[in-house]
Amino acid sequence: MDPADFRRVGHILVDWIADYRERIDSLPVQSRVQPGEIAALLPPHPPVQAEGLDAIASDLERIVLPGIAHWNHPGWFAYFPSNTDLSSVLADLVSSGLGAQGMSWQTSPAATEVEEVVMEWLRHMLGLPEAFTGVIHDSASTATLCALICARERATGLCQNHGGLQAEESPLVVYASDQAHSSVAKAALLAGFGADHLRLVETDDEHALRLDLLEAALAEDIAAGRRPCVVVAAIGTTATTALDPLAGIAELADRYGLWLHVDAAMAGAAMICPEHRWMWEGIESADSLVLNPHKWLGAGFDLSAYFVRDTEHLVRVMSTNPSYLRTAQDGAVRNLRDWGIPLGRRFRALKLWFLIREQGVEGLQRRIRRDIANAAWLRGQVDAAPDWERRAPAPLQTVCVRHVPPGSHDDEAALTEHNLSVAARVNAGGEHCVSSAVLKGSQIIRISIGAAATEQRHVKGVWQALLAAAKAGRHR
Ligand code: PLP
């Protein structure tokens, strides 16, 4: 495509994206297509002759849009907020337009240096001590894998340079709570710890890790000749945004020599508001921390922020130094390929740079505070409503509920079916989308507030929809 065509079609597509965002609330939040429906609209073979892109906007409208779940819809209450502020859409376009490769400082100095500076901005915004340095990863899953690999290498004096874990005398153990995100278990398996050496410690009534059980598990492993290696604390678990007792976990990590990794993938964004930082009291003791600006904060997917204390160790574990990548500046600059798993790196920092400049820290704080206030409003409604139960404290923006029709308290199977049908009925309406989960055996409905377009009236709307769906379910 030549620049003249790019300019012409590009204007059409920017208009199309702007129109899409303007009319997003007229679309059903959830896609209604059936499996295979989108693929059936595409030719099975690629065009042999060049087609050009003049028909692309109408094909996007006809083929792609029906298969999209609208995460930026004001009625989006499913999973977690995954806001893609339009400023970060422009940043992504610029990143692709530049075609920058940031694997080494020399391969695009701006990609490295803008990232260094915006990660410092983010560190300040979060109130993190200077001891932390940030680097961008694609996802929290990758960042947590890095953390577990670094923990493994610290505990074993860099076993990867010798016989690896296979040559270790005693097995290394990973600890997290039974509410930890699946990426923690996945990282433990991929980093070679093995499922037998992953302890998912039971949680308390508020779904936070129980310190007494963590300590008991540590003692049991040591007595059996195993070596505690790393503990992952969640600040904002996936199902309920439960807060693990970080200060207590940090104290145990210190006493037992564990690497402390904090997973604040979703909730970390709230820490840009100083009044919420009590939630991660003890964070200064962490070895590493991940939070996802690509969730609630508004930087379009993918952009995960990984903060580490010991950058030298990170680089020692992650660096490779083949001759074809060496440059004259090595030693004087950061080569970010050595700060994570992949060699090639997109210029993701532009998304954060654009977002923070466009919104300002105060604008971002205002939105987080609005969402937390909206969740508090919903919490009050649920607590006051007969036959509705709130199943978790909801310190942030996720409210976990279930409807318990009179007389059905003891019938778990009926409650499961009923609550699944309530959620399905709400979602079928097209104006709202909520998600379901099983929390310690109970079927719940999660209302995750925080799409940038969601105002209080939309939260009131989803609550009315839930009430109506529960009533319809009872009268079936
Ligand atoms: N950790 C927590 C607490 C999460 O809620 C999620 C995603 O929902 C993840 C990790 C995984 O994030 P990612 O998709 O960036 O790997």
Integer-rounded radius of gyration: 24 Å
Instruction: Give the tally of β-strands.
Output: 12
What is the helix/strand order? HHHEHHEHEHEHEHEEHEHHEEHEEH
Named once each, the bound ligands are:
pyridoxal-5'-phosphate
β-strand amount: 5-15%
List unreliable stretches of 5+ residues: none
Shape: globular
- Cα-to-Cα separation, first versus last residue: 58 Å
Q: Note the total helix count.
A: 14
Tell me about the largest β-sheet: 7 strands, mixed
Mean pLDDT: 96
Give the proportion of residues in helices: 40-55%
Structural class: alpha/beta
Kindly report the spatial arrangement of strands forming the biggest sheet: 2-8-7-6-5-3-4
Descriptive terms for the model:
476 residues, alpha/beta, binds pyridoxal-5'-phosphate
